[in-house]
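anyone seen this seq b4? input:
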Amino acid sequence: MLALGLAGAVQAQSLAVLLERARTGEPTYLGAKTNVLAAQARNSQAIGAMLPQVSATASANDNDRNYKTRNSRVPEARDQYDSYSAQINLTQPLLRYANIVGWRQARAVVGQAEHQLAGAEQELFAKLVGAWFDLLAARDAVAFTGRQADALQRQWEIVSRGAELGVYGQPQVDEARTKLDQALSDAVVAETDVHLKRAALEQLVGDLPERELPYMLGEAVLASPTSDSLEKWLENVETGNPNILAATQAYEAATAEVRKQRAGHFPTLDLVASYGKNGQAVGGFPGQAGYDITQGTLGLQLNVPLFAGGSQSAKVDEALAQKEKARLDLEAARRTAILNTKQAWFGWHGAFARTRAGSQAVKAARSALAQARAGLENGLKTELDVLQAEQQLRAGQRDFRKGRYDQVVAFVRLLAASGRLTDGDVVALDGLLVESPEAAEPPVDARMIKVSGR
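predicted toks r here
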């Protein structure tokens, strides 16, 4: 997934574990898996409709019959006797076009469900990665705003003390206080945001243990989508995006539904056969002997629809409307996939630019901080200058980390849009994570660790 330079680092959290929890517990993904099973069962039903249909019936009765004629000279008669019947019926469809079309439709529905499952899996992987790095970014924001508030608290104290000595005026004191209040507010917002980001991740994987979150290795070279042009990525989306493929299968199923409903106007022909036996202890009239009858039949049964009150024509109209809706859904899926691809593509470039700017800002802030500390020792700089340099350094570190998080997420979404993201790609991201925050710093010089990767 991503080119890495270090291995074997101890991880505070593992994407591999989170991925397994998401795959076994996320409701939307599990629902898509269940939908595949339902579609496969529907396909079996469609196959069964073309196979012989066999049924058997049997009955046994205890009869009590009074026989009385309207001729008063004929005495009444009463019979008590047993009777039974048993029959086996077979129907083999010979010409039922609707059944053939229904089977083709069921296969399209199975394909649709399988592509929907693949799309749900791609979306689950991308959501997991996005939620994970959003949480890391929120953690970094909490650390930054906390230190920012501490620095501005110290800055306000310096300005307040300077105002008492006549070095600063009231406007400077008010400005320092305003910045401190804003920093304290930002810290509260950051704390709230990290809880929300954790909740978003827990929606995918369930409850998260309270463990230390890892950091991204600062010297790793992240994968770049620029090995292919945007046009090439869009071509891959057209042929590999699971949502487009699922919508294509849905359109084929809707087309088959039109043919199936039109087949309701067609004649049907079945081969029918039956074999049965029935008997009773006495005849149909008093005094007659009982009987046993065995009978077998074999023949063809033709059914020609003549008039159904217009209901079948209405079903055809409904199927045509559903077909048009499926066509529009396909176009919507195609446009959405293209939009997602472009957003991920340009999002990666924007994140790359922010990463580069953040790295440069860290280098400049390091130099400024070193100068400020040296100047403070020589009496050329004030403690306020050192605090401001430290704030610039922390802001650069935050922006550098956030840019790299966004690069990874954008590239993952780009792979997901083309249907090429795998669980191995997600698990490989664990190699980017380290326990030490110092390892997340950008390199001091231009050297970057380069190892072949996706």
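The radius of gyration is 39 Å. The first helix runs from residue 15 to 25. kinda curious what u guys think
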